[in-house]
Structures are given as structure tokens and as C-alpha cells.
Design a protein that fits this description.
Low-confidence stretches: 285-289
Radius of gyration: 19 Å
Strand content: under 5%
Number of helices: 12
Mean pLDDT: 87
Helix content: 55-70%
Strand order of the largest sheet: 1-2
Number of strands: 2
Order of helices and strands: HHHHEHHHHHHEHH
Length: 289
């Protein structure tokens, strides 16, 4: 009976996400596939809240306890995430991986686009950090040791970024039927593992850094800030910077900056900086396991 309940809830999550995605796509400035995948996350969290008896300890385990929240850490994380990618870009300019390429929108979009990017960056970070560092990790921790749970959580985190609908041509005005068709093609990217391996590794490493920030603070504030800062920079740098055609993808990666050796190096520098700042702090140990 319990398994049937889980199956029915999972089906309801997928159906609700499929129905809502076309409507949200009609006004939200995101790709349809991204909207659909994030809706599945949000709906899954909502299902947990509605159908699972949550204790206060569960919410605290997700890193959302009011007593642990810090706006200072949120904005410090935002600055650190943006600065890391900013310094990476500055390093790649003289090395020939990036070039200055002004691609500013019309003037009236300059008045609101940065705020739109800022809001979307924090929304994405809030959803993903609550889902992965909160719900997924704590669910895994009830079954496995911390190291295994960390691996599973961040492997899943990296994998989700490649659930993009494959080669299915999304129409300009997608419907619920397109949502279900995309779901059938979500794993297409994994048919060519060599192509996604560099980006996958970068996302996995970034996920580990976000997990470290959570463990050292007992709150998702720093993780959300770091995540949002990186997303915001990636949205804004398209106005000023472009990849150089023919530049080594192994060294410089793609436009997302985390799929090349230099990107991995700067992720290591970010981890080192966090360790220097947080290393003497008390590691958060209140797993709900």
C-alpha cells in the first residue's frame, strides 16, 4: 500500500508539472525544459510537505531553521560566487579563452534586466539548494553514511542539469503534450557521456562545495548565496564576454565556465577560501538520520 502511494504521488508530481509548465513558460524568461525540471523539484518538495509528517528536526536538517539563517552569509556567498567567476574570466582573457564582446540590450532593458536576473538567480538557488542540499541529502542520509549520501546527492545534482529534453524540438508555444514528450527524452544527453563528462565533473565539484558550505554553517544561507552569485554572473557576462572560437575546450570549457581545467582550478580556489574562513567553525552534525 505504501509503495502504491509513492507511485501515485510521483505520477501526480509529473502530471502537475506537465500541466503548469506551458502556462509558466508563457511569461517566465526561462527555457521550457528548465521550467519543467524545476517544477518537478518544487512539486516534489510540496508533496513531501503535504504527505509526509515533518518534524521540526527535518526542517532544521534542510538548513532552513530561522535561528541558523544569516543574511550576512547569504550576501557574502553571493559576492564570493560572483567574484570567483569574475576572476576566472579575467584570467581567461589574456590566455585567449575569452574576449571582450559588448552585447548590451536596448537601453530600457538595462533598467530592469539586472534585477530580473538577480531575482531569477536567487529563485533558482533557493529551489535547488533546498531540494538537493536539504531534502535529497537528508533522505539519503537516513539510509547511507555521510560520504555515500554526499556522493549520491551531488551526482544527482549534476545529472539533473542534463535533463533537457534531448533532441525533441520544443515549439514556440509548448503544451502539456510537449511536457510529456520532453520527459521521454530527458536522458538523451547521457547517450553521449564523453560530451557531458567535463561539465558533469564541474557541476559535481560545485555541488560538493555547496555541501561543504552547508555543513560548516548548518544553514543554507551561504550555499544559496554562492549558487545565486554564480548564476547571476553567468547571466550577466553574456553582455560583455564571449568565448573565442577555436579555444581549447579542455582548458577553458564552454560558456558556463565550469567545464574546463581552469574552471575546476578556480572551484578549488573557492573551496580553499571557504575552508580558510570556515575551517575553524563547528561542522554541522545534526543529520536527521
Amino acid at each position: 500500500m505504501k509503495r502504491l502511494k509513492v507511485v501515485l504521488i510521483a505520477a501526480a508530481v509529473l502530471i502537475l508539472s506537465a500541466l503548469l509548465a506551458p502556462w509558466i513558460h508563457s511569461f517566465a524568461p526561462f527555457k521550457f525544459e528548465r521550467i519543467l525540471s524545476r517544477l518537478v523539484m518544487v512539486s516534489s518538495l510540496a508533496a513531501v510537505v503535504l504527505f509526509v509528517r515533518l518534524r521540526r528536526a527535518d526542517i532544521e536538517g534542510w538548513g532552513l531553521a530561522p535561528g541558523r539563517w544569516s543574511w550576512k552569509r547569504l550576501w557574502a556567498g553571493f559576492a564570493a560566487g560572483s567574484a570567483t567567476l569574475g576572476l576566472l574570466t579575467l584570467a581567461e582573457l589574456p590566455l585567449g579563452g575569452r574576449t571582450v564582446d559588448l552585447n548590451l540590450p536596448v537601453w530600457w532593458k538595462l533598467l530592469y534586466k539586472p534585477w530580473e536576473y538577480l531575482a531569477s538567480a536567487f529563485l533558482i538557488a533557493l529551489i535547488e539548494e533546498t531540494f538537493f542540499r536539504g531534502f535529497v541529502y537528508q533522505s539519503a542520509r537516513r539510509r547511507w553514511p555521510a560520504a555515500a549520501s554526499l556522493f549520491v546527492t551531488n551526482f544527482f545534482y549534476a545529472a539533473v542539469h542534463f535533463f533537457k529534453g534531448g533532441h525533441y524540438p520544443v515549439p514556440a508555444e509548448p503544451t502539456a503534450a510537449d511536457s510529456f514528450k520532453i520527459m521521454l527524452h530527458l536522458g538523451d544527453a547521457f547517450l553521449k557521456p564523453a560530451e557531458i563528462a567535463p561539465s558533469f565533473l564541474g557541476l559535481f565539484l560545485f555541488g560538493l562545495i555547496l555541501s561543504y558550505a552547508y555543513f560548516k554553517t548548518g544553514s543554507l544561507a551561504l550555499s544559496i548565496g554562492l549558487h545565486a552569485g554564480c548564476v547571476f554572473f553567468l547571466k550577466m557576462d553574456n553582455w560583455f564576454i564571449a568565448s573565442v572560437p577555436g579555444a581549447s575546450p579542455l582548458v577553458f570549457g564552454d560558456k558556463n565556465l565550469y567545464s574546463g581545467v581552469l574552471g575546476w582550478l578556480f572551484l578549488g580556489l573557492l573551496f580553499g577560501a571557504l575552508r580558510a574562513v570556515l575551517g575553524n567553525g563547528v561542522t554541522h552534525s545534526k543529520d536527521t538520520a
